[in-house]
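Internal tracking record. Fields below are filled automatically when a chain is submitted to the structure queue. Please do not edit lines marked as system-generated. If the sequence contains nonstandard residues, flag them in the REMARKS field before resubmitting.
Queue: standard
Priority: normal
Entity type: single polypeptide chain
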Amino acid sequence: MTGHAATTLERLWRWLYYGFCAALLVFLIAPMLAIIPLSFNSEPFFTYPLRGVSLRWYAQFAESYEWRLAFSNSLIIAGATVVLATALGTLAAVGLTVANFPGKGALIALLISPMMVPHIITGLGMFFLYSWLGAVQTLWGIIFAHTTVAAPFVVLTVATSLAHFRINLLRAAASLGASPVATFFRVVLPIIMPSVVAGALFAFVVSFDELIIALLLSGSDQRTLPRQMWAGTQEEITPVITAVATVLMCISILLALAMQWMQRRGERMKTHAN
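SYSTEM-GENERATED OUTPUT FOLLOWS
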């Protein structure tokens, strides 16, 4: 009888726990999900229930020069950021994982510090530096700034994959006459490739959604999609913003699923290698 009562209490506690988690998840996601129906509203007002369904706001997003420019700028900046952040972050992760040298911990803390420092502080520092260099209101200036804040995500993602990397593979490749460059591309990179791709996706998301640095460094010709959305909320709120927000959510969800798939693939590859 006691065992049956204990089992009943455990089940009740489990269902209460699951219910609390589900309610918390709904509370966090509901504001984002509420935007999606509004993007299909036929009326230029944020009203529920919808008076009609239309794709007019998506069409306006596709036809507007300002929105198309902002979208293309975001793609250009995020694409270039992915290339730079992935290359630099991967090399940094490999070097920090394989080598041992004095001050390694301090260097790691310095590399990942952009993740912990608020973006407003990072953006202000970059604004003063780029003003002196003449890089404000330039695409390459924003690209370098986004690389600074995106590279730590690549470093951590790749370093996690290298935590169980067998150093003997490097020694074996060297004993067979392979150069360090050949060893990296033929031995190390194939093993850590899923983590590298996941880090690149992280970098893309960080750059594509970044607002604070774009507000401080971009001009009218370098507006990114988040800054254009922010300007829209300040100047004239239209349902076009809900359409853009829906597109961004879909992109983020697809990238998150891709990252999960790459991480699971990397775990399977490590399991088979061991």
